[in-house]
Amino acid sequence: MQKLEVVRPKGGETEKITINLGPIDLGQIDLLVEEGFYSNRTDLIRTAIRNQLATHAQVVNETVTRRALVLGMQHFSKRDLEAARDAGERFDIQVLGLASIASDVTPELALETIASIVVLGAFHASPAVKAALAGRIA
């Protein structure tokens, strides 16, 4: 199987999420922002999430190891997939972080070379590739 480069996403690479909060929680957040504890709502929420992730870091690390997940970013170029196809190999993509497939990868090449996809985080690929692989994404 081909060895792929795994890199951590840069600090500026983020995904947007939406959460719903009750008025009391939101009011408390606004109060802490007004009092100068945080620069804005996002700063408080990001800090709270990082604190929870730090609290559970051991469980995350053990699970990543047990499930053989790639931690960070894994990118699949057209060349990676063509080499796998030519070698008669298929990828089982398992990533905690960001998995991406190059924009020049055709749906046909993706179907030939990707057996399954499990991504805890974000998965970037063209809409056509995502549609072709829909049945293989867990």
What does this 3D model show about the protein?
With 138 residues, the chain is of the alpha/beta class. It folds into 2 domains: 23-55; 57-136, no CATH class. It is 43% helix and 22% strand. It has helices at 23-34, 41-55, 57-66, 78-86, 107-113, 127-133; strands at residues 6-7, 70-76, 91-101, 114-124. It has a 4-stranded mixed sheet with strand order 1-2-3-4.
Summary of the model, kept short:
This protein is an alpha/beta fold and 138 residues long.
Outline the secondary-structure elements:
Layout: E1 6-7, H1 23-34, H2 41-55, H3 57-66, E2 70-76, H4 78-86, E3 91-101, H5 107-113, E4 114-124, H6 127-133
Helix pairs in contact: 4-5, 5-6
Count helical runs. 6
Q: Mean pLDDT across all residues, rounded? A: 91
Overall, the morphology is elongated
Radius of gyration: 19 Å
Could you give the distance between the termini?
22 Å
Derived structural class: alpha/beta
Helix and strand sequence: EHHHEHEHEH
Largest sheet, described in full? Answer: 4 strands, mixed
Question: Approximately how much beta-strand content do the residues carry?
Answer: 15-25%
Q: Strand order, main sheet: write it out.
A: 1-2-3-4
Report the strand count: 4
* Portion of residues within helices: 40-55%
Number of domains: 2
Contiguous low-pLDDT stretches (5 residues minimum) are 1-8
